[in-house]
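Q: Predict the assembly, please.
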Amino acid sequence: MHAPTPSVEPQTAQTDRDHGGFAGHPRGLSMLYYAEMWERFSYYGMRALLLLFMIAPLTMGGLGFDQKFAAQIYGNYTMASYMVCILGGYLADNFLGARRAVLIGGLIITAGHYCLAFASIPTFYAGLILIALGTGLLKPSISTLVGGLYSPEDTRRDAGFSLFYMGINLGAFAAPLVVGWLAQSDQFKTLLTGWGFDPLHSWHWGFAAAGVGMTIGMGVYLRRLHWLAHIGQAPATGTPRPWDRLALVAIGTAALLGVMIASDYFPWINPLVYALPIVGVIYFGVLKKDPDSHRIAAILVFFICAIIFWAVFEQAGSSLTLFADELTRNETFGYAFPSSWFQSVNSLFVIALAPLFAWLWVRLRERQPSIPMKFFWGLVFLGLSFALLVPAAQLTAAGKVSPWWLVGVYFLQTIGELCLSPVGLSAMSKLAPAKLAGLVMGIWFLGSALGNKLAGVLAGSFDAKDPLALANFFWNQALLVGGMSLLLLILVPWVRRLTGEQATTD
Ligand code: GLU
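A: Predicted assembly structure:
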């Protein structure tokens, strides 16, 4: 099939007709898939090293930071890179257009990774700031572009996002292995010595590899940019640019970031921030009566679910890693493996299951569950994963437990993730008014930012030494997620009406 001709027909007609890509999807999907795969390769590759690099002593080529300080930088950096998506989305909507936002964001990220390739403190901080800013520009826009490939009625949309999500996880899976090998393995250090380089700089070779990944991603993107000619354009020349509002969004984002960083010292800030979207749902969903407000209320409901979901899910890097490290027998079929390998299990399951979900959504077409119902299942499976940890925690009283407990936990979490995360991206791209597509995607990622932050707070009460307390720790969170899913189940018909969906299968 030939590329749709941009200026002749309305976008909807073009997108509906484009079946020329992988598995009957628009061909733009494959190039966005590969571009995002490499971007995530760079993001997760660098993230896998970041904390270790900061706490490694100077004599090992690290920065020699104190662990608590390093953890704070790590937490705030990951939060910032998702929070800046609000600003990035707004810029894309009103100034740059999503296609150019991805390009500029990608270039900024690439520059950031290459900064980290140099061994100095100023280039270290400059690198982190550049990557966070670039990610804020790229991440919401690339997701908006995927949404733009499908018309609102197109039943392939959720399936397309499931495939896109598979690309994300291919990058996330491969990156720690490649980048970690460069930065930490003795083999690569020996190679460096042989080439006449300082082996203590192996960290920076790892960071540079992340930069190379990002460069490849940008190459793929630029080569096939013409496939996206019909979507993601900048507002027409002559359209007044809202500089004053841009300043407000920038100040608002910076203020929120400041408030969330301050919440480390003033924990009472947290409930105030997390209560705000609830007020928003009541205001837009109950007090206001127009369809646009109702869609905003629905978006906020999904946003609240996303915060809860990521707050529990993102403990993979904290509570579950500690569980793997201290309480799990890390060997199977007589083969011992490092606890960090559990970090790849989720990505592996996504890669295996995402095509299945993509097939399922296409197969069910109009009969597929509604968006809130998929969110409900996402929360149910997440809750079940933490419920499964309750007997596992109790068994730790008798010693280390089998690694299959955690494999089961990650399996359940991945099913939950595939019901919620790609569906959330898809829902944002569908529900957002065209002019606010980037901003709304930014709000979705703000959910990830706040969820990640809350994950850190929750993980603070993890106690590996007391099996009973540990079982309660997991049970309480399973109850929280279970309660949230029940509430959502009750609200499903209302949320469907807010989204404008007609009742079908639920
Ligand atoms: N694994 C997903 C990604 O990196 C998670 C995104 C999110 O937190 O919303 O894209």
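The chain has one domain: 10-499. Residues 1-13 have pLDDT under 50 and may be disordered.
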